[in-house]
Write a structure and sequence with these properties.
With about 375 residues, the chain is an alpha+beta fold. The protein folds into three domains: about 45 residues, no CATH class; about 80 residues, Zinc finger, CHC2-typedomain (DNA Primase, Chain A, Alpha-Beta Complex); about 190 residues, Rossmann fold (3-Layer(aba) Sandwich), CATH 3.40.50. About 40% of the residues lie in helices and about 15% in strands. The protein has 13 helices and 16 strands. A five-stranded antiparallel sheet has the order 3-4-5-6-7, with helices on one face. About 30% of the residues are buried.
Length: about 375
């Protein structure tokens, strides 16, 4: 008798002989032996097969580690972001942290394109987790999508600023202490006064409370401190550079009385000082900056301040989508902390732009008033 393939072959074999339970298994294995070793069976050296039950499915997401590492090294996060419709915000980017925007969404690319984080949430990771984050897919599909980008070359940002000077290999506190405080007519002083339009009284107050340092090429360092007053890092702003201290940690830049019950939260130290200037540095207000980020330590520091009885939390963030997103998070935080909440929005994009506009308008007003009091250059003609 010739064994047929498929169900018909097994039926013919079963009909030819009287089968008991043991012979059914033997005949079935003999039939499968003619067709090769099926999944779920094991063939021994003597040719016998042992039934091992249904074959187990391969573990999902189990990939070749070498292949994954190769993809991770060859495909930058920039390729994923560009394909997803994100664009570089050069004004808000540095060589080490490139900011990408898509509407109100923001992704910061770091580690030379191998890493990323979302400043509006806790999400972060590598190129695979970025695809999972943006597309809501699992690892296996993310790997397939990343593979398709192997030949894609993302655009390189055109940097208009020179790379900053490399800082010596010292700790954060030592690097901060090694820098001088700004002094009248120093490069940092002139930058803050002439380019940022900060009044000298605000600059002097910030220096008096040890909040500022002279950075390279006329830039400003604005220190972030923890609750004990220890410097953890600093914001860096200047004519040719913006960023955050290498190896530093974002907490809060704090300008004003630490026990103030009006807490104004901005996105940059210059915005915090600009708002203070616009409000004539209210004695009941502490003006702080998150440095444009929302690290867990920053969140914890804000919550600690918001827990004080009678505190009013003011979301003085930028007048744009990102600022509104930060304000929503601060509103939720205020609700959890059972403190007051207020949204304070500049008419311009941020508080420094608002300060510049006010200074400009005030200058025009003073010029018109001065011209109104000037005597006429010519005597009126005799009639």
């Amino acid at each position: 008798m010739q064994a047929g393939g498929g169900k018909g072959g097994f039926a013919a074999l079963a009909g030819a002989v009287a089968l008991n339970d043991s012979s059914v298994a033997s005949c079935a294995l003999a039939l499968f032996a003619l067709r090769g070793c099926p999944l779920g069976c094991r063939r021994y050296a003597d040719g016998k097969l042992e039934w091992k039950g249904p074959a187990e499915k391969p573990e999902r997401g189990k990939m070749d580690k070498n292949e994954i590492e190769e993809l991770r090294g060859r495909v930058q996060c920039a390729a994923v972001l560009e394909q997803a419709g994100f664009a570089v915000d050069l004004k808000e980017s540095t060589r080490r942290a490139v900011k990408y925007r898509r509407g109100g969404e923001i992704i910061i690319m770091i580690h030379d394109g191998q890493g990323w984080f979302d400043p509006l949430s806790q999400a972060k990771g590598d190129v695979f987790s970025l695809v999972e984050h943006l597309d809501g897919v699992g690892f296996a599909q993310a790997k397939m999508l990343v593979t398709r980008l192997l030949s894609y070359k993302p655009c390189e940002p055109v940097w208009k600023r020179h790379a900053r000077e490399r800082e010596p290999d010292m700790g954060v506190a030592e690097r901060w202490s090694a820098r001088r405080k700004p002094w009248p007519d120093s490069m940092t002083w002139l930058y803050l006064r002439d380019e940022r339009n900060l009044p000298e009284r605000v600059i002097r107050a910030a220096i008096r409370h040890d909040l500022l340092r002279e950075g390279p090429r006329g830039s400003m360092w604005a220190g972030h401190r923890n609750g004990e007053g220890v410097v953890t890092g600093w914001e860096e702003r200047g004519p040719e550079w913006r960023g955050f201290s290498t190896g530093g940690a974002k907490l809060l830049f704090r300008f004003g009385p630490c026990d103030a019950l009006r807490l104004c939260i901005t996105e940059a130290a210059i915005d915090a000082m600009s708002l203070a200037a616009l409000e004539s540095t209210r004695r009941d207000s502490l003006y702080v900056s998150t440095g444009g980020g929302w690290a867990p330590a920053t969140d914890a520091a804000i919550r600690l301040l918001a827990a004080r009885e009678g505190l009013l939390l003011v979301a003085a963030t930028d007048n744009n989508t990102q600022g509104d997103t930060y304000a929503d998070r601060l509103k939720a935080l205020a609700g959890e902390a059972s403190c007051g909440f207020e949204r304070l929005r500049p008419q311009e994009d941020d508080w420094n732009a608002e300060l510049k506009a006010r200074v400009k308008n005030q200058g025009k007003k003073e010029k018109r008033e001065e011209e109104a009091w000037l005597p006429h250059a010519r005597q009126p003609g005799q009639g």
